[in-house]
């Protein structure tokens, strides 16, 4: 029985802990990505004491931050409230669900300035941390990390395939023998069904059936819907739900550009833009804007009004679409059903986890379209995603010729092969792209 999952963000927490320039750390992420668990585990392994306040549960604790934000007073109050001794080197001060106490967000500034020798970690959702108008966000006074759902390499490592996970994570794609491709393809199919939500992954690894893991995914979706009701302005609630529920239909289109009319016939951008912003802040969607040109800096060519929309987790997309898990798991069906939507979702999710801000490009004069483009080391890399073994690359040719790009990627169910201007990149290797480029640049 697996009791806990291994997460690569633990290495980032070690780096933060050992940094001589350490500031209070704000760990952000969507709900149920495992923020509380990872900080508790880190605290237990690195400190004698963990003084934790959960502002969601410990409502009374919010009053500790109502008055003067003098650090000595706050630390003494935290010590009394938690019953845990608070010492600079041996205690982790853990402010969980900090978005529920806006004044605690402001207090992080004073922990940075007046108590830099203390170890302070706060966790919060994207939405809660960014949307409190009555709180002053401590810009420049906090270190920040983001916890995503498990990536494919994290899934592999927890499934007993650490050696393969390390090769992919290190960008050593060329050194992985083709003999392992069938195993990696099968595990990828499983990952595309299970997704990366920690609770679902843990259940799967402990023998839960596809039906049971789907039930857990649906429970997470239900909890999101309850959060919509709790946190969203009443005037936006129904529109938020309409946008959220439209995502499978948006991605099922041949052209996956977000269309407001799919949300509601006759709808316009002004009707749903605020709802999209709310879901973005909540952390469960990813906007991929259309770039007018594949030139650096890529962000300056991104059109925020034209975009594709993806979900934070591929398993949740399958549940939201009511996609039968058997379609995902049986044979090669995963790579032909749902018109490649899951395949693009997979690649997008792995790119975001590598801290890319992907765009896409569509040629206004023709039918060429590049599914994603990322920027690294001042270079633009176009990416075409194929749901099957497909070696055509017409759109990549057009893009590379038009914008004088040196290298492109075709991600498909194929073995790795570098052909000079283009690399055939297995879908299971998409999470290793940044490390691969670091090696080959």
From TrEMBL:
Segments forming domain DUF4143: 227-387
Q: Which SUPFAM superfamilies match?
A: P-loop containing nucleoside triphosphate hydrolases (SSF52540)
Domain AAA: from-to ranges? 22-156
Give the superkingdom in one word: Bacteria
Under which name does UniProt file this protein? Answer: ATPase
Please spell out the taxonomic lineage of the organism that makes this protein.
Bacteria, Bacillati, Actinomycetota, Actinomycetes, Bifidobacteriales
């Amino acid at each position: 029985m697996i009791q806990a999952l291994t997460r690569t963000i633990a290495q980032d927490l070690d780096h933060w802990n050992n940094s001589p320039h350490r500031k209070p750390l704000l760990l952000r992420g969507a709900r149920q990505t495992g923020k509380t668990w990872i900080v508790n585990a880190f605290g237990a392994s690195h400190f004698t004491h963990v003084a934790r306040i959960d502002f969601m549960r410990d409502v009374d604790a919010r009053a500790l931050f109502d008055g003067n934000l003098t650090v000595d007073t706050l630390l003494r109050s935290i010590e009394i409230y938690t019953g845990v001794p608070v010492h600079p080197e041996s205690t982790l001060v853990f402010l969980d669900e900090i978005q529920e106490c806006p004044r605690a967000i402001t207090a992080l500034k004073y922990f940075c300035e007046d108590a830099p020798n203390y170890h302070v970690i706060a966790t919060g959702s994207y939405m809660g941390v960014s949307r409190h108008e009555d709180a002053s966000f401590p810009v420049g006074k906090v270190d920040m990390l983001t916890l995503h759902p498990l990536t494919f390499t994290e899934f592999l490592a927890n499934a007993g395939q650490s050696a393969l996970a390390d090769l992919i994570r290190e960008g050593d794609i060329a050194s992985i023998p083709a003999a392992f491709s069938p195993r990696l393809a099968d595990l990828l199919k499983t990952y595309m069904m299970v997704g990366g939500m920690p609770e679902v992954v843990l259940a799967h690894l402990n023998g839960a059936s596809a039906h049971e893991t789907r039930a857990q995914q649906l429970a997470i979706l239900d909890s999101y819907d309850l959060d919509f009701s709790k946190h969203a302005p009443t005037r936006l609630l129904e529109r938020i739900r309409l946008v959220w529920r439209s995502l499978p239909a948006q991605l099922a289109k041949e052209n996956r550009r977000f269309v407001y009319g799919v949300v509601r016939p006759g709808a316009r951008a002004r009707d749903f833009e605020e709802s999209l912003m709310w879901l973005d802040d909540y952390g469960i969607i990813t906007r991929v804007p259309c770039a007018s040109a594949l030139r650096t800096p890529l962000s300056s060519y991104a059109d925020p009004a034209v975009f594709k929309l993806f979900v934070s987790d591929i398993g949740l997309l399958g549940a939201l679409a009511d996609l039968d898990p058997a379609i995902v798991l049986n044979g090669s069906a995963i790579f032909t059903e749902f018109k490649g939507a899951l395949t693009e979702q997979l690649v997008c999710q792995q790119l975001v986890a590598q801290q890319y801000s992907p765009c896409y490009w569509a040629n206004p004069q023709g039918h060429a379209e590049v599914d994603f483009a990322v920027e690294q080391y001042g270079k633009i890399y176009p990416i075409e995603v194929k749901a099957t073994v497909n070696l055509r690359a017409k759109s990549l040719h057009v893009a590379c010729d038009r914008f004088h790009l040196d290298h492109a990627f075709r991600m498909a169910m194929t073995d790795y092969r570098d052909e000079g201007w283009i690399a055939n990149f297995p879908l299971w290797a998409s999470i290793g792209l940044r490390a691969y480029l670091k090696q080959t640049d």
